[in-house]
Amino acid sequence: MQRNDYLWKGILEDIFDDFLRFMHSNADEIFDFSRGIEFLDKELEQLFPPEKDEFSVKIVDKLAKVYTHEGTEEWILIHCEVQGEYKPDFPHRMYTYFYRIFDKYGKRISAYAILTEKSPKARIDKYATEFLGTKLEYHYNVYKISQQSEEELLQSNNPFAMVVLTARSVLKKKRLDDDVLMEIKLKLARKLFEKSFDKEKIRKVMNFLRRYIHFEKSENNITFEQHLDQITGRTTTMGIEELILRASKHEGMKIGEKRGEMRGEKRALERRNREIVTNMLSKNLSEEMITDITGVPLEYVRKVKSEITKNNVNGERMTK
Q1: End-to-end distance of the chain based on CA atoms, in angstroms?
Q2: What angle do CA 156, 213, 275 make, to 5 degrees?
Q3: pLDDT tens digits, residue range 122-169?
Q4: Is there a single domain that holds both residue 35 and residue 116?
Q5: What pLDDT sits at residue 160?
Q6: Contact assessment for residue 61 and residue 44, using Cβ atoms and an 8 Å cutoff
Q7: What is the rounded CA–CA span in Å between residue 172 and residue 169?
Q8: What angle do CA 231, 225, 282 make, to 5 degrees?
Q9: pLDDT tens digits, 225-278
Q10: pLDDT confidence of 307, banded at 50, 70, 90?
Q11: How many domains does the chain have?
Q12: CA-to-CA distance for 89 and 99, rounded, in angstroms?
């Protein structure tokens, strides 16, 4: 659950425009995405200070500022419930977020609850209270992953549909050993690369898929990457990482010998892993948590941390 918290936070930021398009077919008519999207984490922290153990909270909150084509500034609030069991106080929590934000900032808010629990049971989409003639009803949008149609999601040309498919895939299976998970991940990977998504969006959704569906045995991560090479090899001799990382370069670049490509793939994978680990260390995540999220060995995390510390020390010495 702690790993999933982090992954949902990341993917919602990565493809937030696609999330809005997924929820509203006319999103491009409403929002001016050319003006960018700003995430208001500081505003949320002012109203809801994080607990000492930030990973004890089983809800992912994102507050974003977007612009409409009329030029108005609007705020979007997303609650992503990632705990395995639905809590009865969830509607009240949704309302609490709304009234605190509205009271402090006076902004109109569109709120969404993404529920990832396994139960397909419908959940209410409002908070209501009444006493002696005074009545309040607060309604919000609810999207429940376990209720979604796999067929419709596969037909969608929106990257967020692949995120939903990834989360949904592990809810529908009774047996989730590594063999089953391998089959699920490869099926989703094939579908992802069949889509005509932007290369950067493919990379981000692929990384979500890699880590959201987590193998028990770490060596299966290597097997999965080898299978991916075979999948992408049907249309190109480049491996998956090269396919993505070279997307912005010349399309006519000649492909080198296979041995050279393998070295390039390893270097690309090393760079990607180092960037991810470095970013997580900067957020003060524990070494064990980073290993759990990324699947890289604990020794590797400690090595990167040691190198960062050494570089910082050397940098301080040079400035004195």
Answers
A1: 44
A2: 95
A3: 898 999 999 999 999 999 999 999 999 999 999 999 999 999 999 998
A4: yes
A5: 95
A6: yes
A7: 6
A8: 135
A9: 888 877 776 444 344 444 444 443 433 343 344 445 555 556 666 777 788 888
A10: confident
A11: 2
A12: 16
Determine the distance from the C-alpha atom of residue 162 to the mean position of all C-alpha atoms in its chain, rounded to a whole number. Answer: 11
pLDDT on residue 121: 87
**Single residue among 199, 226, 255 that ends a domain in this structure:** 255
Indicate whether 194 belongs to any domain.
yes
Q: Which is higher by pLDDT, 21 or 171?
A: 21
**Nearest CA among 270, 268, 290 for reference residue 279:** 290
Same structural domain, 177 and 133: no
Other CB atoms within a 10 A radius of the CB of residue 103 amount to 9
Alpha-carbon span 156 to 77, nearest angstrom: 24
Distance, in Å, from the CA atom of 180 to the CA atom of 212, rounded to the nearest integer, reads 14
Give the Cβ contact number of residue 143 at 10 Å: 18
Helices (H), 70-218: 90-105, 150-155, 159-169, 178-194, 199-212
Clarify whether residues 137 and 205 are in a common domain.
no
CA distance 122 to 305: 45
Mean pLDDT estimate for the chain: 79
Residue 13 shares a structural domain with residue 134:
yes
Q: Which of 255, 287, 315 is the last residue of a domain?
A: 255
| Cβ pair 216, 178 in contact under 8 A | yes
Assess if residue 298 is contained within a domain.
Answer: no
Residue 198's domain comprises 151-158+172-255
